[in-house]
Amino acid sequence: MKLVTAIIRPEKTDLIRDALETYGVQGMTISQASGYGRQRGHTQVYRGAEYTVDLLPKVRLEILVEESSCDDILDVLISTANTGSAGDGKIWVTHVEEVIRVRTGERGMAAV
């Protein structure tokens, strides 16, 4: 099993969720996050005062998938999240040794 973690633009959340559900993903975890990458935030003017926003709002998306469908999931994420601009996000994949459904005690892909 693999854990696919993506940091994406908040405005892309619904599109990505819909695309993943259309592909067949049955579960995911979505969390609010903040951070920065190469873009290093931006400067805004509020009531005449200029200030720098260092941490930008992002969304963290986590999906537990079978190894055989991991590449397809990545393709869906990349094609849906891409705007071609800085700040589109990052995706990383980690190996998962074990998954256990707490309610039933099921293990492995049966727990997903």
Automatic annotation (TrEMBL):
One Pfam family linked to the record: P-II
InterPro entries, sorted: N-reg_PII, N-reg_PII-like_a/b, N-reg_PII/ATP_PRibTrfase_C, N-reg_PII_CS, N-reg_PII_urydylation_site
UniProt keyword list: Nucleotide-binding, Phosphoprotein, Transcription, Transcription regulation
Top-level taxon of origin: Bacteria
Keyword ATP-binding recorded: no
Family, per entry: Belongs to the P(II) protein family.
Quaternary state and interactors: Homotrimer.
Protein name: Nitrogen regulatory protein P-II
